[in-house]
Amino acid sequence: MRAPGTIASLTVVLLVGVACLAGPWALPHDGGTVFWDHMLAPPNTDAGLWFGTDANGHDLLVRTLEGGRVSLTVGLAATLVSVVIGAGWGMASGFLGGRGDALMMRIVDVLYGLPFPFLAILLTVFFGRHLLLVLLAIGAVEWLDMARIVRGQTLSLKTQPYIDAARCCGLGRGAILRRHILPNLAGPVTAYATLTVPRAILLESYLSFLGLGPAEPATSWGHLINEGAGVLEAAPWVLAFPAGFLTITLLCLTALGEGMRPAVPPPQKPEHHPVPTPVPEPAPLLAVTNLSVRLGARTVAHAVGFTIDHGETVALVGPSGAGKSQTAQALLGLGGHIGGSVRFRGQELLGLPADRLNRIRGARIGFVPQNTTAALNPYRSIGAPMIEMLRHHRGLDAAQARVQAIAMLERVRLPEAARRFDHPPHELSGGMRQRVAIAMALSCQPDLVIVDEPTTGLDASTQTAILDLLRDLKNRHGTAFLLISHDLEVVAGLADRVMVMQSGRLVEASPTRDLFQAPRHLCTRRLLAAAGHELPP
Question: Three-class SS of residue 348?
Answer without folding.
Answer: strand
